[in-house]
Amino acid sequence: MKRQRIGITIGLLRPDETLWNNGIKQNAVFLADALRHCPSVASVVLVNTTSVPLTSALPWDLSRHPTLDFNDAKDQLDLVIELGGQVDSARTEYLKARGVRLVSYCCGFEYIHAAEAMIFGKSLWGGNLFVNDRYDDLWVIPQVAGNSQSYLEVMRRQSGRVVPFVWSPEFIEARCREFPHNGIYRPHVGSRRLTVMEPNIDVVKFCLYPILIAELVYRERPGAIDLVQVANALSLAQGHVDFIALMNQLDIVREHKAVFTGHHDTPTFLAQNTDIVISHQMENPLNYFYLEVCWQGYPLVHNASLCPDLGYYYEGNNAQRGAARLIEAIDYHDLHAESYRTWQRRLIGRYAPGNRAVVRTYQALLDQLLSRPVRGASTRQK
């Protein structure tokens, strides 16, 4: 069987777009690395679907992660994986006319985004919705499958498959080389700086439960907490009357132990401002942020059910249990910080692009895909 030339789409908004505003671009890079390990794959390139020019300002090495404009790549591919940039109707027609297979790689909370937009009067598509019904397969990462897989299957008229989540420390380590000790957690004496870094753009990853967990610990052990830092919350703290009213009920606010800030670069804030991270999610039980925190050895208090062996796990919305795990991290983490980091990295290895189980699963997915006829192939002359 011919070895496959694969393109994975991205949608650049700026030539120097950061890797840290969301995980989409990192997802594309890590998936490309995993697919390069598959025996049936000849090459993998990233394919930009926007008009943003590709320059050396990109935050990755183009020699290691080849990246092309769609028009330059379209005649060199056997399979296109739509991930971070949509393949529109005209481009789909062109690819199908060439017999190219098209896979939708689903790594966002599409159902939740759509539901919240409609309920709260926002617009996602501006009335110009294009739903592609010519995908050859739908690949869905585990953490979004529960809320979005069936929604996507119905809309795209195609059954989906849950595929391995892939992550590499490549970018977090590269970013942290400029910091003392490579940004790795260092034990110290005294009270702790707690950090909450939820995006606060929807209910999936919101700061309220982490704040409540910090509040419970402060009530019990006020001397143990130096500061509670809530990132991505400045607009809420300055302009949302209900958020302000709620926060003013808490001791950490009344006694000036909490600060609400804007957006921060994750590696920098971890390395310079953080001792312990508190997190909470609904329908997002696995996330790059969790892996970045644990890889660097920071204690992570979280409720992500797909990785309960990482960090300090509490179940569901149990703030009391989260507080108990936070106290455990405060009291004992520094006693085994180095062995904790080593163990966390060993566990995280299951998501590595070169992990044998990950590669085997993606090779099996490719084999299944190639065993089926091209779906929705155009009758136009190739």
Characterize the structure shown.
This protein is an alpha/beta fold. The chain has two domains: 4-168 and 352-370, Rossmann fold (3-Layer(aba) Sandwich), CATH 3.40.50; 171-349, Glycogen Phosphorylase B (Rossmann fold), CATH 3.40.50.2000. Helices cover 38% and strands 15% of the residues. It is built from 15 helices and 13 strands. It has helices at residues 24-36, 70-73, 89-97, 110-119, 142-156, 170-176, 208-220, 234-239, 241-247, 251-254, 266-273, 288-295, 319-332, 337-348, 356-370; strands at residues 4-10, 41-48, 67-69, 79-82, 101-106, 137-140, 160-162, 192-196, 225-230, 258-260, 276-278, 300-302, 312-313. A seven-stranded parallel β-sheet has the order 3-2-1-4-5-6-7. Helix 7 packs across helix 13. The longest helix has 15 residues, at 142-156. It is globular, with a radius of gyration of 22 Å. The mean pLDDT is 95.
Mean pLDDT: 95
Residue runs with pLDDT of under 50 for 5 or more positions: none
The domain count comes to 2
Q: What fraction, in percent, of the residue positions are helical? A: 25-40%
Gross CATH architecture of the largest domain: 3-Layer(aba) Sandwich
User: How would you write the strand order of the largest sheet?
Assistant: 3-2-1-4-5-6-7
Highest-level CATH class of the largest domain: Alpha Beta
Structural class of the helix and strand makeup? Answer: alpha/beta
If you compute it from the alpha carbons, what radius of gyration comes out, rounded to the nearest whole angstrom?
A: 22 Å
- Overall shape: it is globular
**Portion in strands:** 5-15%
Please report the distance between the alpha carbons of the first and last residues: 21 Å
What is the string of SSEs from the N terminus onward? EHEEHEHEHEHEHEHEHHHEHEHEEHHH
Annotation field: number of helices:
15
Named CATH topology of the largest domain = Rossmann fold
Largest pleated sheet: 7 strands, parallel
List how many beta strands DSSP finds: 13
